[in-house]
Amino acid sequence: MKHGKKILIAVVAIILALAFVWTRVQAAESPTVRVLAFGDSLTAGYGLDPGEAYPALLESIARDEGFHLSVRNAGLSGETTAGGLRRLGWVLRQPVDVLILALGANDALRGQDPEAAEKNLRGMIQQARDAHPDVTILLAGMLAPPNLGADYRKAFDGIFPRIAEEEGVLLVPFLLEGVAGDASLNLADGIHPNREGQRIIARTVWVELRRALEDSAG
Question: What predicted TM-score, i.e. pTM, was given to this entire model?
Fold first, then answer.
């Protein structure tokens, strides 16, 4: 009986080892997907080390799940959709397979015209497609702060789902889901995510990013 149990344990160990090796082989054979995270201070990881911002965290999450990503962080603190529209063309000179477009927070904080923000976001989507026709675009949604009033919030918050539907891009409904308004997940300014907040953002983005990677692989 003991001899049979030892054999069973040995067989299980071999199966697990083979499964581990096969997973590593698959990961090694999968192509590296070039991801551009284009945004503002939320993407740049304001107040944190670069490796603590969500773009860098996406690489490790993907690696753990058998995907190869090379994520370039093109976040710029203070960036608005207008600034992004002017800057994106230069950033797109390098190869990009997936664009994470995460702008709009500063437009809302400054109470800027939602229609202008929408036009700018659509312009960036078109720029990306002109530069890289096969690019997959992931739009990160934002919500206006409550102090701007119900009318502004309705106008601004509706930008992102409408763009996603009409432009045929993937949508993260709210980049700061589970982070905004939680003092324990933000720096002292109450606006910028801390390390744990950035980890939550990375997981939020990964849900849609993984779906995009699986769709392209299929």
Answer: 0.85
